[in-house]
Amino acid sequence: MAAERNTSMSIVKAVAIILMVMGHAEGPWWVTNFIYLFHMPVFFIAAGYFFKRSAIDQPWQFVTRRFRKLYVPMVAWSIVFLLLHNLFFKIGLLNETYGNLQGGVTHPYTFSSGLQRLVHIVTAMAGYDEFLAGAFWFFRALLVSSIVFLVLYLLIDKKGKRPTWVPPVVIICIMLVFTFLKIQFGLKVVTVVQGGIRECWGIIFFAIGVLYRHFKERVPRWWWTNLIYLGVLVTGTLLRWHGMNLTPKVIDIATLPLTGICGFILLHNLALAFDRYRNDLHRLAVYIGDNTLIIFVLHIISFKAVAALQIAVYGMDWQRIGSHMVVHDPTTAAGFFILYTIAGVAIPLALNAAWHKLKECTMHNA
Questions:
Q1: What does the alpha-carbon distance between residue 259 and residue 236 come to, in Å, rounded to a whole number?
Q2: How far apart are CA 117 and CA 127, in angstroms?
Q3: According to DSSP H, which parts of the chain are helical?
């Protein structure tokens, strides 16, 4: 990965993670709809972009690396949230009165239920606290997607005799057909939590990332093509097309790859242009893109700081701080989604910087 150091791709991931946080901040419908059309596909495409042909020759090394970078942090952080779950109830960050927008709430864990969740976390990358670790599905989806992509690649072209673009194209076609059948007939991959729909999309977008790297020099980057990409996303927003949600429709087979590709190319084109300016803002963007993990992990709990402010300003019931992901009140929410976004990015990064600074000081003193 070090040999593939690419700051423009770090900028792409920075924008994508900010958009993810903003999407979770429950802004105006058109903002949320726009973001969800492409923000998660961007991460899978970016992961596929860095896939190397050498992984076919050393598959176990690839699998080991993916487990180390995805399974290990997901399990570790899930256990942290599991251990803190009941404490969050005691200090008021969670409660059984307020929950998500659909009215669902979370509950304190007994020893038995906590132990069962631990088993789910370790064996299925599931069972994490749905409220404060709600974005953790991404780690499982990317792990499964990348490994299944590798397996399919090996089955199609283990000896490397085919042109490099052929295996990903074949994989995309296979997965589009399977995803169509899955949606049309309600098929579930019972060995994968949530039925595997996000993993299906993940494989498709991972393969698209591999293709993009192969053909990136041929991708048009004129200003008017960016307007076309943006126009597709705006159209999808107004028509209420779907993102990578758990209730897909058959039309998504056509619309989601389109919006995912347009969103990624648009972001990458903008990142390539921005990459020319090596200033403080550029360094900040690269830093954010290189630290998306900590934002994934801590952005939801960081929202509580803004929730507390919103509750205090409008004199709400303090228990509403237990709302997921933010305080649900359209009459007071105007503009707060921006504060939620800022907090969801800035607080995890600040904690991350402080932690590394502390480690440096400890090592220096030792």
A1: 7
A2: 5
A3: 7-24, 29-36, 39-49, 54-57, 59-66, 72-91, 111-124, 137-157, 166-185, 197-215, 223-238, 252-274, 280-290, 292-314, 336-365
* Tokens coding 225: 């093509």
Q: What angle do CA 11, 211, 72 make, to 5 degrees?
A: 60
Q: Which two tokens stand for residue 129?
A: 């606290």
What count of Cα atoms within 13 Å lies in the side-chain half-sphere of residue 125? 21
Ramachandran quadrant class, 180 (left: phi over 0; alpha: psi -120 to 50; beta: rest): alpha
Distance CA 209, CA 45 (A): 4
Q: What is the pLDDT of residues 18-67, one digit of tens each?
A: 999 999 999 999 999 999 999 999 999 999 999 998 899 999 999 999 99
| Count of residues making up the chain | 366
Residue 40 makes CB contacts below 8 A (sequence gap 6+) with 20, 138, 243, 244
Burial class from Cβ neighbours inside 10 Å (0-12, 13-18, 19+) for residue 291 reads buried
Query: What is the rounded distance in angstroms from the CA atom of residue 254 to the CA atom of residue 238?
Result: 16
Contacts of 310 (CB under 8 A, 6+ apart): 316, 326, 327, 329, 332, 333, 336
Are 47 and 366 in contact by the 8 Å Cβ rule? The answer is: no
Closest CA to 130 of 97, 105, 110: 105
> In angstroms, how far is CA 136 from the centroid of its own chain?
8
Indicate the residue type of 259.
T
Mark the ranges of the chain whose per-residue pLDDT is less than 70.
Answer: 1-5, 333, 366
Cα torsion 245, 248, 197, 124: sign: positive
Residue matched to tokens 């209730």 = 247
User: DSSP state, 1?
Assistant: -
Please write the tens of the pLDDT for every residue from 270-299: 999 999 888 999 999 999 999 999 999 999
Q: Structural domain boundaries of the chain?
A: 2-293, 294-365
Residue of 208, 198, 316 whose CA lies nearest to 246:
198
